[in-house]
Amino acid sequence: MRRVLPLILLLMASPIAARDSLGVFGMWGAFRDPDVPRCYAIAAADSNRNRRDFEPFASVGNWPDRQVRGQVHFRLSRELSANPRVRLAIGGQRFDLTGGGNDAWASDAGADAAIVAAMRGGSTMSISATDNRGNRFTDRYTLSGAATALDAAAVGCAGQ
Prior knowledge:
Oligomer: single chain
Radius of gyration: 15 Å
CATH topology: Immunoglobulin-like
Number of domains: 1
């Protein structure tokens, strides 16, 4: 429960009235927001003692009305530099991400699919970038439960 607490706090940070819980699986949760409509899997970054300007999280979303499935999004723990090099590592695979502010995404739908496939088979992932003070930082995630949460989010919006 102690490791799930950051996920619960993250979700409580914004209004949850419109969200339906599809379940919590390991370190990941799955939710449906029927008002949008959208479904997503989400996890808070592992806790550490490093400076954080924001509470980081990783999410994979589906927007059936827009024909968007498996779109990866990361809220980073710090504001990015003007020319950040944002890199995601999952196992032995590396992915360059695009980003701005304190957000990062895959460059296109093909990269989203490759990242999601790597997440399904991985045990951990980390995102490293350069912050607006010129320092490198890393946000780390446990992928325990990610595959099941991804599936729950996909099924949650399948009929929409």
